[in-house]
Amino acid sequence: MEDKERVLTEVPGEETAEEIVAAVTPEDSEGTEIIPIGDDAENTSEDAAEAVTKSEPAAEEKTAEEIAAEAAEARGLDIDAAMELIEEKRYAPLRQMLREAEPADIAELFDELPKQQYAVVFRILPKELAAEVFVELDSDLQQILIESFSDLELRDVLDELYMDDAADLVEEMPANVVKRILQNVTPEARKIVNELLKYPEDSAGSIMTTEFVRLKQDMTVEEAFSVIRKVAYDKETIYTCYVTDRDSHLIGVVTVKDLLCADHETKIADIMEDHVISVNTLEDKEDVAATISKYDALALPVVDAENRLVGIVTVDDAIDVMQDETEEDFAKMNAMLPTEKAYLRTSPWELYRSRIVWLLLLMVSATFTGMIIGSFEDALKTQAVLTLFIPMLMDTGGNSGSQASVTVIRALSLGEVEFTDILRIIWKEIRVALLCGGSLAVVAFGKIFLIDKLLMGKPVTVPVALVVCLTLLVTVLAAKLLGCTLPLIVSKLGFDPAVMASPFITTIVDAVSLVAFFALATTLLHL
Question: What percent of the chain clears pLDDT 90, i.e. is strictly above it?
Answer without folding.
Answer: 28
